[in-house]
Amino acid sequence: MFFIPRKNFPYFKTIAQSEMRAINRSAVLEYLRLAGCASRTELSEELNISMPTVMRIVDQLIKNGFVRSTGRIQGSMGPSRELLELNMAENLVVGIDFKGNHVDGVIASIGGQILHESHEAENGAKESDNFHRLKDFIDRMLQMSQEYSARILGVAVAIPGIVDKQNGVVTHAPSLQWKQFPLIERLKNHVSLPVVIENDVNLAALGEYWFGKGTGTRNMVMISIGTGIGAGIIMEGRLYRGNSYSSGEIGYFLPGTEYLDARYPEFGALETLASEKGIVERAVKKMQVKGIKQAEKIDVDYVLKALNNSEDWAVDLFSQTVDCLSL
Q1: What letter would DSSP give residue 165?
Q2: At what angle are helices 300-308 and 312-326 packed, to 10 degrees?
Q3: Alpha carbon 301 to chain centroid distance?
Q4: Mind giving me the DSSP string for 210-258?
Q5: For residues 62 and 68, is the Cβ–Cβ distance under 8 A?
Q6: What is the DSSP letter of 28?
Q7: Strand duo 151-159 + 195-199: pairing
Q8: What's the order of all strands across the beta sheet hosting 38-39?
Q9: pTM over 0.90
Q10: How far apart are CA 134 and CA 124, in angstroms?
Q11: What confidence tens digit (pLDDT) does each residue in 191-248 have?
Q12: Whole-number Å distance between alpha carbons of 165 and 167
C-alpha cells in the first residue's frame, strides 16, 4: 500500500457554522444597502438562502437595531409582504484617513451617507507623535458624533502602509515612521468602540467598488498616487491582500534594470520617480540643471501649473512619469 506523506496533503479549507452565519448576515445587509428595501421572500430567493435562515437573520438584525420595517407590499398572489431596509439613521460609523502630513475624518451612516467631515494638516515628527495625533483626532471625531442622536458602531482607520489585519499591527508605514507598530493594541487603551485598521488604498478601492467607478464589476485595480504609490485589488468581488498583506505595494516595483542592485529602505524605486514626492524631487533637479530660478515652495501644484503652461521641463518630467506608471 502506498501512503502520501501528510506534509504533501493539499490544503483543505472548511468553514464553521458561525462563519457561515456571519457571511449570510453580511449578504443580507449588503443586499438591503444596494436594493434600498426588500422582503424576506426576495432576500431568500435572490441570495439563495433558505427562508428559515433568512427569518432568523432578519429577526436578529431587527432586534439589534440594524434593520427596520418600512411598510408592506401587496403580492400578486397571496398575502402582503413586509418590506425591510437598513436602519441608517440610527447607526453611524467614523472613518479616518490618516496620512503623514494630514488627516481626514468623516461621520457616516452605515449606508454611506456622509454627515460630517473634518480635515487637519499637520506633520508628526516621530512614531509616538503620529500615534498621539491619531488618538487625539479620534477623540475629537467621537466628541463631534455626540451631536447626532444615533449610536456609533465603530471606527475605521486607513493607514498608508502595510497592515497585518490579523494581529492589528502596522508592519511598515514610512510616512508615519511606523514599523511593527501595534496600533490596535495601543488604541484599545483609548477607544472603547471596535476599531478596524486597513491599508488606505485597499479602502479606497472598496469605496470605488461599492460607490464609484467599480460598481457593476467583479474585478478591478485602483492605483493611488500620493506621498507613495499603492494599488487596491478586487478579485471576484473580494479585496485581495496577498500572503503578507502587501499585494498592492507596487511602489517597490523596479521601472527598469538600472534600478537593480540598489537599496530602497523607505520608499520604493517607482515611488522615487512617480509619487508626489518623487515628482517634486525630480522637478527640483531638472530646474537646477536648466538653471531655472526656483520658487520658495515647490510642490506638485507648482509642477502641474508649469505643465499647464507647457513649460518644457515640466512636459518632459510628466512624460517620463507617465512612462514609468504605464510600465
Answers
A1: T
A2: 110
A3: 25
A4: HHSTTTT-S-EEEEEESSSEEEEEEETTEE---TTS-TT-GGG--SSGG
A5: yes
A6: H
A7: parallel
A8: 38-39, 81-86, 67-73
A9: no
A10: 10
A11: 999 999 999 999 999 999 988 999 889 999 999 998 889 999 999 989 999 988 989 9
A12: 6
